[in-house]
Specification:
heterodimer, A: seven-stranded mixed sheet, four-stranded antiparallel sheet, 0% helix, B: mainly beta, six-stranded mixed sheet, five-stranded antiparallel sheet, 11 strands, globular
């Protein structure tokens, strides 16, 4: 099993450009998450999904959109990138409550110039 | 806002010594977890302790939970250079424990 994979690993954007980050998991997990990690800030939840076709806002959702069309994939979109979105983005997945360990992807390092 | 706050923010010790990190949180929880993050990598789950547990062991890891003080500690015994990493506590939050809220982490450096 590959676990949780993220595409791309690195990306540089110019202000105003758009892009989509892809997260895929092969563990048949219901729940999936997108976080951003900034120096000294820990992980902050952007959006999450508790099942195919559902999404919900996290702590810092502004400027991002998500879609969960297939259970194994969770997409994070930036419609008009801003320098404040320069960060490392992590995707995670897990089974529903009762066993709450989250499995993380390797991260995507995004720089917005 | 952050639920978990780790202390200290950074810790540097000699190989073979024990390392203790603390986490405080604000609201009632169902469980608390600890994760490790090596530089440039994703987080890896270490251990979970439920709210009705006071202590849990896993190899060289020992976790305690004091729900009356809303705090937890992670002890790594006989530290090794490979333990150099950032360590985060995470608490469940929201209805049905759908989300985890992570602290800012403790950066642990093990000096050979």
């Amino acid at each position: 099993n590959a676990g949780v994979t993220q595409t791309p690993k690195f990306r540089v954007l110019k202000t105003g450009q758009s892009m989509t980050l892809l997260c895929a998991q092969d563990m048949n997990h219901e729940y999936m998450y997108w976080y951003r990690q900034d120096p000294g800030m820990g992980l902050r939840l952007i959006h999450y999904s508790v099942g195919e076709g559902t999404t919900a806002k996290g702590e810092v959702p502004d400027g991002y959109n998500v879609s969960r069309l297939k259970k194994q994939n969770f997409l994070l979109g930036l419609e008009s990138a801003a320098p404040s979105q320069t960060s490392v983005y992590f995707c995670a997945s897990r089974t529903p409550p009762g066993y709450n360990e989250q499995f993380f992807g390797p991260g995507t390092r995004l720089t917005v110039l | 806002s952050q639920q978990g706050e780790e202390d200290p923010q950074a810790l540097s010790i000699q190989e073979g010594e024990n390392a203790t990190m603390n986490c405080s949180y604000k609201t009632s929880i169902n469980n608390l977890q600890w994760y490790r993050q090596n530089s440039g990598r994703g987080l890896v789950h270490l251990i979970l302790i439920r709210s009705n547990e006071r202590e849990k062991h896993s190899g060289r890891l020992r976790v305690t939970l004091d729900t009356s003080k809303k705090s937890s500690s992670l002890l790594i015994t006989a530290s090794r250079a490979a333990d150099t990493a950032s360590y985060f506590c995470a608490t469940d939050a929201g209805q049905g424990a759908q989300k985890l809220v992570f602290g800012q982490g403790t950066r642990l450096t093990i000096n050979p």
